[in-house]
Amino acid sequence: MSPRPRIAVLGGVATDYLVRGPSLPETGGSAEGDLFQEALGGKGANGAVAAVRLGADATLVARVGTDRRGLEQLTWLEREGVSLESVVSEPEAPAGAVLVMVDGRGRKQTFSAPGANHRLSIRDVLRSAERIAAAKVLLVQLEVPLSAVQAAVRLARAAGVRVVLDPAPAMTLPEVLLEDVHVIRPNAAEARTLTGIPVHDRASASRAASNLLMRGVGAAIIAAPGGSLLLSREEEAWLPELPVDSVDSTGAGDAFSAALAVSLAESQPLLTAARFAQAAAAIATTRLGAQGGLPYRDEVLGLLSDVQLEVQVGPP
Ligand SMILES: Nc1ncnc2c1ncn2[C@@H]1O[C@H](COP(=O)(O)OP(=O)(O)OP(=O)(O)O)[C@@H](O)[C@H]1O
Ligand SMILES: [Mg+2]
């Protein structure tokens, strides 16, 4: 058995407060749900936990509040086996919190208070330079300051570490950052923000992906309605969503990005990594909330052997 590959994850840590109910409240209104869940969240934490569950050693670069919530977040991360040497304590800002509302059809709304996550600095990143350089893959998202993301990506690039970017929450990005990214994984809304191209199907996802490649990213995998479109300089492929009973997509994108990072860190080809990621995302949609839904390696391999994932290679 080969050793566990090393992944560095830079990103946000939060506590998710989730309420599920038959329908979401309207603006100015209130509604009653039928279930409450409190759990670890934030894209950095989700990515690191997913990477460990999927078979990697994950080190998290983050800032966490020293309040009760922050201490609890660290306990949760530790229990999952995430390496916390690069987590910095933030005594002056509250630990991140996210309100998540999910309706009976799996549609959701989130409202977050980033708190300590917005204090992650370039200096914090430089302090963890060795751990980033020792990783095979760096996984980043956008819940922490862009300056910190850029510093980490530059460091990774210089050390020959591959960079996977999940560009959420949606925002426009500097071209110099895109040029250093090996694989970008936006969903449809994020792809539109980045490229101006509305993504509603495979063809429009392909156009948006081309735009990102022209601007310097190595490859793009866009989550479009019905599946994921993969485009690199060598190949184009469509990976349809797997037939599972989805209840909530919270954390599914995070599971996808982490699985992709783990598989790439195992030196798998991009398309193989994307298949693994597609299955990881599918499992994540079958369970409520982010953390509870983050899949384990055996579950992903089991799903891939149980159902046919009909990857369509080449342009449509
Ligand atoms: N049945 C399915 N099979 C495979 N993948 C699925 C299925 N349903 C959803 N997905 C995948 O789940 C992912 C959802 O990603 P997206 O980033 O939009 O999620 P999200 O709701 O923003 O959650 P997150 O907070 O994790 O990002 C996509 O990669 C999509 O392809
Ligand atoms: Mg997402």
SSE blueprint:
Blueprint: E1 6-10, E2 14-20, E3 35-41, H1 43-53, E4 57-65, H2 68-80, E5 87-90, E6 96-102, E7 108-113, H3 122-127, H4 129-133, E8 137-140, H5 146-158, E9 162-165, H6 175-179, E10 183-184, H7 188-195, H8 202-214, E11 219-224, E12 227-232, E13 236-240, H9 252-265, H10 270-285, H11 297-306, E14 312-313
Helix pairs in contact: 1-9, 7-8, 9-10, 10-11
Key terms:
alpha/beta, UDP-N-acetylmuramoyl-L-alanine:D-glutamate ligase, 4-stranded mixed beta sheet, 11 helices, 14 strands, 36% helix, binds adenosine-5'-triphosphate
Q: Provide the succession of SSEs.
A: EEEHEHEEEHHEHEHEHHEEEHHHE
Mean pLDDT: 96
CATH homologous superfamily annotation = Ribokinase
The molecules bound to the chains, other than polymers, are: adenosine-5'-triphosphate, magnesium ion
Rg is 18 Å
Q: Give the % helix.
A: 25-40%
User: How many domains would you count in the coordinates?
Assistant: 1
- How far apart, in Å, are the first and last alpha carbons? 38 Å
Shape: globular
Largest sheet: 10 strands, mixed
Number of DSSP helical runs: 11
- The CATH class, by name, is Alpha Beta
| CATH fold group | UDP-N-acetylmuramoyl-L-alanine:D-glutamate ligase
CATH architecture: 3-Layer(aba) Sandwich
Content-based structural category: alpha/beta
Strand content: 15-25%
Runs in which pLDDT lies below 50 for 5 or more consecutive residues are none
Strand order of the largest sheet: 5-4-1-8-9-10-11-12-13-14
Number of strands: 14
